[in-house]
Every structure is written in structure tokens, then in C-alpha cells.
Amino acid sequence: GFRTCVLAEAWVDDSPWRSLTAALQQRLRAEFHVLLESCRIGATKSEPGALRAALEALRARPQEV
User: Fold this and answer.
1) Could you report the per-residue pLDDT of 20-36, keeping only the tens digit for each?
2) Chain centroid to CA 62: how far?
3) Is residue 56 within 8 Å of residue 50, measured between CB atoms?
4) How many whole angstroms separate alpha carbon 3 and alpha carbon 34?
5) Residue 55, SS3?
6) Which InterPro entries match (predicted)?
7) What pLDDT is stored for residue 47 in this prediction?
8) Among residues 28, 31, 34, 35, which one has the fewest Cβ atoms lying within 10 Å of its Cβ?
9) Which of 31, 27, 22, 42 is nearest to 4 (CA)?
10) How far apart are CA 22 and CA 41, in angstroms?
11) What does the DSSP 8-state code read for residue 64?
12) Per-residue pLDDT for 9 more than 90?
């Protein structure tokens, strides 16, 4: 089967609206197998490290995506 991943350019939200951000993240977690946030993996979406983290989380090889 297929496994799905969201690689989000995210930050730690300490704004008054953080509950909305948290609700969106919960919804994404429910719909996708993996949710990776750049602020938690230490790499931006465009960096190879972020893509490696996504592949590891999905247990996939580059040629499989």
C-alpha cells in the first residue's frame, strides 16, 4: 500500500491563535501517516536533511517515491 507524509515548513507557535495551529496539525496527523515539521527536525523543506527524514519516517527509498 501507500504511505503518506506531510513535510511542513512549521515553527513553534506561541501566538494567541496557537490553538488553531494545533487543531490543523491534529487534522493532518489524522489524515496522513507521517507529519514532519521543519522546526522539530532541524531542517527546512528544501534541505536534503528534511527529505532524508521523510524517507526514514516512511521507511522508503528515494526510487520508491
Assistant:
1) 988 988 999 999 999 99
2) 17
3) no
4) 8
5) helix
6) HAD_sf (IPR023214)
7) 87
8) 31
9) 31
10) 17
11) G
12) no
